[in-house]
TrEMBL record:
Pathway: Metabolic intermediate biosynthesis; chorismate biosynthesis; chorismate from D-erythrose 4-phosphate and phosphoenolpyruvate: step 6/7. One of its GO terms (biological process) is amino acid biosynthetic process. Its main location: cytoplasm. It is an enzyme of class 2 (transferase). It holds the Pfam family EPSP_synthase. This is 3-phosphoshikimate 1-carboxyvinyltransferase. It comes from Chitinophaga rupis. Catalyzes the transfer of the enolpyruvyl moiety of phosphoenolpyruvate (PEP) to the 5-hydroxyl of shikimate-3-phosphate (S3P) to produce enolpyruvyl shikimate-3-phosphate and inorganic phosphate. CDD domains: EPSP_synthase (cd01556). The lineage of its organism: Bacteria, Pseudomonadati, Bacteroidota, Chitinophagia, Chitinophagales. Monomer.
Length: 425
């Protein structure tokens, strides 16, 4: 699908989409619980739908009830010997240790960008927990055979926090007096989100300094009601759109959230945007934007909106944490450099730093998402201050995390056109 976004001032109000990070975790916790969980404000992006299907194949009953989703489970009791995690990195890394709680052989698959993302962690770690595991040279498909037996273990957290999220969630259902020790953990706030959600489902982990995670007496996940928070990762694009091209009010964003990407507020402030943060509403208005420095090592998904922001800031913005981007849906350091380069914005990658030369003028261009939702969204935001429209190829990539994105962008006043998009022009 091609989407064309035209330059222009924006002004409007919108409600943030549900967080896929929170939704996927809630689906996993509901599967691990006995009884009925009701998820309010459920996410329905492709990653969330994949999580629901995985939970269903692993034994849960899923029912859509008006605006909610009901998940009834009796723990992990697979109906099938294979699961498919779609394109979700979190999905596969979280559900693999959970599926390994069962004692049958299971094949774990995915598609698109997920087939090229590293999974060798599991081959190194799962056998230490009594799980047979093989991959195709560190990539999908994964073949596992549990049951996983928790014990004290040390893992490397430098590639991704998602493997730890999976182990924590699985340990939560069966562990007794066991400790996971992690070295060099990245994306720490995502682990805070995991621990917070586990606690909401009745499982408490004693963590120290994000290095050790201790499970004391055996605990059980408790089914209940859960409301999915608004998504800071998706909303970051709308907030940046407002900072560069007008004014927007975004509802259902919790400033007390554990989500890492609420850090977009710090970057906007550094860049000089005008902001009025409330408890659940953020208002951002265009200001005189200047280059800024920001460390995105622990919030890597902010790189694409930060680049769209930096392209509009006078001077050279320095964003740290580029090494975190190599194994996302695309190699995001490179794809940002390529696609923003087409729009006349120079980006240099220097070791772990990204330098964005902003304020030089954004040019209308024909860009490609590289099947990466966050690249498509970043280009759409950059289009708002370009000299001519920007056409985005393979723009349907947004469905992975934020199917409502173009509709929301239009709601805050942007001119968005597409033959295939079901939005009013
Ligand atoms: O746990 C999560 O929900 C996520 C963790 C992050 O991954 P890393 O831990 O690999 O940085 C992030 O990039 C991803 O989009 C979602
Ligand atoms: C990298 C992302 O997700 P995941 O790793 O879960 O596929 C993302 O949403 O940008």
């Amino acid at each position: 699908m091609q989407v064309i976004v035209s330059p222009g001032e924006i002004k409007g109000t919108v409600t943030a989409n549900p967080s896929k990070s929170a939704m996927q975790r809630a689906v996993a916790a509901a599967l691990l619980s006995k009884g009925k969980t009701v998820i309010h404000n459920p996410g329905l992006s492709n990653d969330c739908l994949a999580a629901l299907e995985v939970a269903e194949n692993l034994g849960a009953k899923i029912k859509r009830e008006a605006e909610d989703i009901e998940i009834t489970s009796n723990g992990v009791k697979p109906f099938y010997d294979s699961i498919n995690c779609g394109e979700s990195g979190l999905g596969i890394r979280m559900f693999t240790p959970i599926a390994a709680l069962a004692d049958i052989a299971i094949t774990i698959e995915g598609h698109g960008s997920l087939t090229t993302r590293p999974m060798d962690f599991f081959e190194a770690v799962l056998p230490q927990l009594g799980v047979e595991c093989s991959t195709r040279q560190g990539k999908l498909p994964l073949h596992i055979k549990g049951p996983l037996q928790p014990k004290n273990i040390t893992i490397d957290g430098s590639l991704s926090s998602q493997f730890l999220t999976g182990l924590l969630m699985a340990f939560g259902a069966v562990a007794e007096d066991a400790t996971i020790t992690v070295t060099d953990l990245k994306s720490k706030p995502y682990i805070a989100l995991t621990l917070q959600l586990m606690e909401q489902f009745g499982v408490k982990v004693e963590q120290h300094n994000f290095e050790t995670f201790h499970f004391g007496k055996k605990q059980t996940y408790r089914a209940g009601e859960y409301t999915v928070e608004g998504d800071w990762s998706g909303a970051a694009f709308l907030l940046v759109a407002a900072a560069v091209a007008g004014k927007a009010e975004v509802h259902h964003l919790n400033t007390q959230s554990a989500q890492s990407d609420k850090a977009i507020l710090e970057a906007l402030e550094k860049a000089g945007a005008h902001m009025l943060p409330g408890v659940f509403t953020i208002i951002v208005e265009k200001g005189k934007l200047e280059a800024f420095e920001f460390d995105a090592t622990d919030c890597p998904d902010l790189f694409p909106p930060l680049v769209a922001l930096a392209a509009n800031c006078k001077g050279t913005t320095k964003i740290k944490g580029v090494s975190r981007l190599a194994h996302k849906e695309s190699d995001r350091g490179i794809t940002l450099q390529q696609e923003f380069g087409k729009m006349g914005i120079r980006i240099d990658l220097q070791g772990d730093d990204m330098l964005v030369y902003g304020g030089t003028g954004i040019k209308g261009a024909h860009v490609h998402s590289h099947n990466d939702h966050r690249i498509a969204m970043a280009c759409a935001v950059a289009a708002l201050t370009a000299d001519k429209p920007v056409s985005i190829e393979n723009a349907e990539a947004i469905n992975k995390s934020y199917p409502e994105f173009f509709e929301h962008l239009q709601k805050i006043g942007a001119a968005v056109r597409s033959e295939e998009l079901k939005i009013k022009n």
